[in-house]
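RECORD TYPE: inverse folding
INPUT: structure tokens
STRUCTURE:
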């Protein structure tokens, strides 16, 4: 069974990721807690320490945009289920 290193922003290091990859697993560096320069360094350093595949984990949060028509469609679709169970349906999805 393959070993996949956990993505641990602020804890995983290029050395750790390279060691896991060199041992036959999938090493992982988490760059979500660093800036562009830090990410570039971590990727470059990991590449220097292994010629094996490794994963780069990055999380990006986008500001959600409300879609009122879609929300209303969901509320309308769910309303009968609330009624079946004698519960009051939600007025909004927020």
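DESIGNED SEQUENCE:
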């Amino acid at each position: 069974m393959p070993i996949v290193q956990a993505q641990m922003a602020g804890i995983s290091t290029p050395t750790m990721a390279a060691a896991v990859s060199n041992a036959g697993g999938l090493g992982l560096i988490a760059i979500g807690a660093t800036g562009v320069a830090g990410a570039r360094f971590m990727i470059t350093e990991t590449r220097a320490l292994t010629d094996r595949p490794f994963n780069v984990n990055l999380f990006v949060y986008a500001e959600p945009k409300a879609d009122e028509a879609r929300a209303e469609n969901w509320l309308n679709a769910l309303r009968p289920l609330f009624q079946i169970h004698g519960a009051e349906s939600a007025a909004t999805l927020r």
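NOTES: The mean pLDDT is 90.
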